[in-house]
Specification:
Elements: E1 7-11, H1 16-27, E2 34-37, H2 42-52, E3 59-62, E4 65-68, H3 70-78, H4 82-87
Parallel strand pairs: 1-2
Antiparallel strand pairs: 1-3, 3-4
Amino acid sequence: MSSRPRVLMYSTGVCPYCLMAERLLKEKGVVEIEKIRIDLDPAQRAEMMQKTGRRTVPQIYIGEQHVGGFDDLSALNRQGRLDSMLQGA
């Protein structure tokens, strides 16, 4: 069995798009999402903006690849590319 890539999500406590992204990932079989709460740690917000070039949450990584926000995640799913990314393919 291949190990699934790590899923990392920059989020805040009151972000509906973060919740929708989490729901979609769980529907796809992701058991663990490593969350970084940027509302609790301003240094993490600065790091997220520096790494992604974006200010909004969620910002999602699958393995080393920056996927983007919920709209990007949803688009990958509609294109049929999300499953293979989550399998590490």
